[in-house]
Design goal:
This protein is mostly beta strands. The protein has one helix and 24 strands. The strands form five sheets. Strands 1, 2, 3, 6, 7, 8, 9, 10 and 24 form a nine-stranded antiparallel sheet that branches. It starts with 7 loop residues before the first strand and ends in a 6-residue tail after the last strand.
């Protein structure tokens, strides 16, 4: 039970967690910094100019401060849990309902000495300031799309799957920002040469200069930090990305993606998944 409309939970890089709600012995107010983001603007002003001209701007990291009270029956154990889980040497993830954000600890918990209702405060920092949705969208670009699932109505015709062979598909990103994605490529035939994708609306491409063999699986993960390419046969093969590859984000709105290959495209299964992002989360 939480008195806020979203339940906040912190999970450190060891998998240890703290749930900040009444049922778990904690009561918090709205965390500072979950909604607002600071922007630094460099401006110039000419002689006689009213106002200024913005030359550049930079979106800053997101500091978050959590204030609350320890209200559970076993106050000592609850205080010890805060110190054990929210450690300055570990990274973590802060959850707000269905949204989450990667954070580091900038101030380990300060906790009062009271047996009941002891106040506490801790500080976090999100290097990448946008919140990510916990609901990932997934689409099949090419291959067999699974179709059979329970509950099953025996009176209707059902299919275990259907073959997806389209010239392109439209990915829709209803979030506020361009987002990274994970692209999975499976070679189900003999070979496929120089497989990739093209955004038909922007002309951007993502292409591997590589021949995939039967049963080989390649996973391309883009992120806000780096891009990885991992093959089930060859391991790390990021060097196979061609120099002209520029398609590393799913843009807001519609994205018309077309699978491509120099040869063997009929031997490819391809799927993509991504999560939308938001500038902040709100609570009541």
């Amino acid at each position: 039970m939480s008195f806020l409309s979203k339940t906040f939970k912190y999970v450190n890089s060891l998998g240890q967690s703290i749930v900040f709600d009444y049922a778990h012995g904690y009561l918090i107010s709205k965390p500072d910094g979950i909604d607002t983001i600071s922007v630094t603007a460099n401006t110039a002003q000419g002689i006689g100019q009213v106002g200024a001209t913005v030359q550049s701007k930079a979106i800053q990291t997101r500091p978050i401060t959590i204030n609350g009270k320890v209200i559970g029956d076993n106050a000592q154990a609850l205080k010890d849990a805060l110190m054990t889980v929210v450690r300055p040497d570990l990274t973590g993830v802060l959850y707000a309902g269905d949204w989450h954000i990667d954070v580091i600890v900038t101030a380990s918990p300060t906790i009062g000495a009271s047996k009941r209702g002891a106040p506490f405060q801790l500080g976090l920092l999100a290097p990448y300031p946008y919140w990510e949705s916990g609901e990932r969208k997934a689409m099949q670009l090419r291959g067999v799309q699974k179709g059979f699932k329970f509950p099953w109505n025996i009176s209707k015709t059902y299919y275990f799957g259907k073959v997806i062979v389209l010239k392109y598909i439209v990915l829709q990103n209803f979030g506020q920002f361009d987002v990274p994605f994970m692209l999975e490529i499976n070679c189900i035939g003999e070979t496929v040469t120089n497989v990739g994708i093209e955004n038909m609306l922007t002309g951007e491409v993502l292409r591997l200069e590589k021949t995939l063999v039967e049963d080989e699986r390649v996973v391309i993960k883009t992120s806000h930090g780096k891009t990885t390419v991992t093959s089930s046969k060859d391991g790390d093969c990021r060097g196979a990305l061609t120099l002209e590859s520029t398609l590393y984000r799913i843009h807001t709105g519609d994205n018309a993606w077309k699978p491509t290959a120099d040869s063997g495209l009929e031997n490819v299964e391809m799927s993509v998944s991504f999560a939308e992002e938001s500038a902040g989360v709100t609570v009541i």
